[in-house]
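Page 42, continued from yesterday. The earlier attempt failed because a stray header line got pasted into the input along with the sequence. Redoing it now with the clean sequence only.
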Amino acid sequence: MPALTNALARFIRPGQRRGFAGLLLAAADRLPLRADAEAPGLAPLPEDPSAPQDPAESLALARMAWAERLWAEGCLIPGGAAEVERLSGLLPLSPATTLLLVGRDAGGAAGTIISRRGAWVAAYQHDPFLAGRMALRLRPFGRRALVLPWQPNQPAFRPRYHHHALALEPLAGGGTFDRTVQALAEALKPDAQLVMLEVVRGDGPASRPILDRWLALEGRPVPPPERGAAEGALQAAGFQIHVAENAAPRQCAAVIATWVRLIEELRAAGAGQLRNAAVGLIEEAELWLLRHRLLSSGAIGLRRWHATLRR
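This time it went through. Structure tokens are written below.
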């Protein structure tokens, strides 16, 4: 699959084939070209960018389509629905509970939680485009799913209403860690539980150009917080931390496995699958290549916290 292979090759120094890009290129080399084969279970491709759309909107739509093809429909985190089930399974959810869901989701996480646990879900989304997609996808769940807006720079949710919360990298849209967790605390009932997944600053060296490019691709206006400062903010907001897990190894493994699977699907489907969608694919590949590189080097980390609100 020349387009993706060439895009990944741009990020490997001459003579080196290691790390995320090297693994993907090696996998691509081993896969046979089957242009006439039918790729089973392929997700719908992005809309035709030749349609009358703003170029930035066209690119965003293309990248969204590739992200959902990677992680499953409506899911925006590696591992897809299985990872959502694993994270939400840590919370005591039932048809009698209401969950505050915020962060990376386009309806897949909310739908998975309602289907598997029966909980009511208040899904907060700062991006109007994603909010619209979520509302359409969650329509079959009726009143059990509610999509609401929020502003990362001025976070606020319905106060003292939700039984528990699941936050999937809420800082990806901006804002600060301390204000976000304070807003979550104010939105929860006493003794509510929180599961939070978020990127933190690591102890390893980071190339500033690589870090800046990753921040731009993810839409993060500022670097992630330090781990100690993040955990201090959780405690200051009233949360008692029970578990602080290093989630980076699991995510890195999911990223590699899923990209290898996508390469295989694209090889099976032939070059026509990339028509009018290659730019979105290249940017999405670059984003995950850089995230994998930063996580692997320790320049950034990924933490999963499980905490209870004590007040």
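Notes: Confidence is low (pLDDT under 50) at residues 1-5, 10-18, 27-50.
Reminder to self: strip header lines before submitting.
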